[in-house]
Fold this sequence. Notes:
84 residues; alpha+beta; two-stranded antiparallel ribbon; 2 helices; 2 strands; 19% helix; globular
Amino acid sequence: MPLDSAAAALSRPVSIMSDAAWRQVPAAAGMNEAARLLQSYATDAGLIPLVSEWWHFNDLASASGVDDSYTGRFTLAANVGVAP
């Protein structure tokens, strides 16, 4: 199921492997002040925003040591969260 355009963080696609490309792109029109604040906190900590989801950030520094041969097929083995 594709995400709604309201989930977008940026106004157009950028490379997720660049730590600077996102800085050249305006925020999506749907970004509210709270989402902008979260983005500011996360990017100040060195994370990179994911274009398609305002709440999702990548850590390129730690990804450099990760095996990138994954297929994208994940299985949820357990849920350790607690319902509110």
